[in-house]
């Protein structure tokens, strides 16, 4: 069979200073043969169509780096699937493109006028506060080639120095995306998924501090530049990603790719449109993310080993190693990937790897990260220096590290996953995102999930108080703060990442509560937040033990505070939508646990469970 692929220079980026740091999507991808189909449309419609078609035609399967012979710059070229372009042409001819028809609906194959809102969605009545939030969220939308592709991190008109808060952050966009999905405005989410995919790093060069293959950027910015750097050529827009090379502390965003997979599955579940997740380039993108996550290293745990600051907490906070947040997202992303990977040749091996990892990871977290009063008492009485595979205190935890705050704080009922586990080190701090996402993704057992929410309920005054919800608890103080954060003045006790209260976490709390039939808790939290958020101009975070003050250096009109609130509100009105973002307990592992209720060791059939 002859190949339908032809090498074209569509992604050539002659001004590339570092590998793949500047990729722009070309203006000339849509072949001239498609244009006549668009005759008779208004210029706006024609522009929208052209953009859509261009993106559709960009089903690249192979990207390659080369050095331009003329000027020695690093360029990128890709193979473009010409068969796809032919199919597209047929499709357009068959659908008789006329004025007033929704491009999105047509391309999704829905073939109807108007929006592609999920049919299950009942547009609820909005109050004034929700209207304000929607207006602000829409103002934060960023366009690329005339199309919405994301939302910027913060849009405070009075802020003269936005740093990188004028960029689209992958993790920050997730609540915006879910809000748009809930509103039936799915196009921005689709665009975001496909454009960020184009930014994914695909080659590693150690010498120039470039990102590893498969890494998704932390954020990107739409820039207007002169075509080929020449003023006379006019301008065009490019997407400029940041993989952490410009971020404060140069932190690689391990969570970005995981969030991307989670959102991809949510998009498919919400719209019923599986054509995005089934695209060749999307399937390749998923595999590249999995490859970097599942790669062998020196580590002997099934958890992902990462540096400090590789997730929402993107500064030094002593969470390097195996932080819960990354493990919860990793687990959920693996579950989502298993669901959406096409069962084609070569995928079976990957699915087997995913299954092994899921089983080992859930065992590890459920067994060794879980803390309740019974477990704490066990740790309190641990013997140390046990040399054998049968050791009870496997990680050689010295009971002396159990702090007084924990002995006083842990309630009689309820429990949670601790923040981190390493040899001779348990980070007993509570981290909200990791615990909530363990519930959502199904990493926690149903019983553990119930107990986590029970703990939030009984420790409400510490974790919610006057603004939901603490990023972690308790704060690092004094000498601990100095050593662990490196004396970071932004992360002083009960501020920012160090025990600050973050309104954006409301949506994750809400999804977890809905999943566990505890919507009452989420409603209580939303009620508290709505009293202040608008009045305080939608801050990024709040300070002090009870969250009474707007954060010292908090941005105002922070988009994910706005979107987090909206998503929580909309989810409570449409609780069925929580299923876009949740998974039930993995049956394979549940069966294993039921059959071995007393098993404290991970010694099941090597075929299934050994990684
Ligand atoms: C801060 C947060 C990070 C967020 C970014 C943009 O750096 O720690 O999680 O993505 O701001 O809002």
UniProtKB/TrEMBL annotation:
SUPFAM superfamilies named in the record: Six-hairpin glycosidases
Family: Belongs to the glycosyl hydrolase 100 family.
Naturally occurring in which organism (per UniProt): Physcomitrium patens (Spreading-leaved earth moss)
Gene Ontology molecular function terms on file: endo-alpha-N-acetylgalactosaminidase activity; sucrose alpha-glucosidase activity
Known role: Invertase that cleaves sucrose into glucose and fructose.
Reaction catalysed by this enzyme: Hydrolysis of terminal non-reducing beta-D-fructofuranoside residues in beta-D-fructofuranosides
Keyword list, A-Z: Carbohydrate metabolism, Glycosidase, Hydrolase
Protein name in UniProt: Alkaline/neutral invertase
Pfam family, one: Glyco_hydro_100
BP terms from Gene Ontology: sucrose catabolic process
Domain of life: Eukaryota
PANTHER family membership: NEUTRAL_ALKALINE INVERTASE 3, CHLOROPLASTIC, PTHR31916
Organism placement in taxonomy: Eukaryota, Viridiplantae, Streptophyta, Embryophyta, Bryophyta
EC code(s) of this entry: 3.2.1.26
Gene label: LOC112283925
UniProt key word Kinase: no
Enzyme class of the recorded protein, top EC level: hydrolase
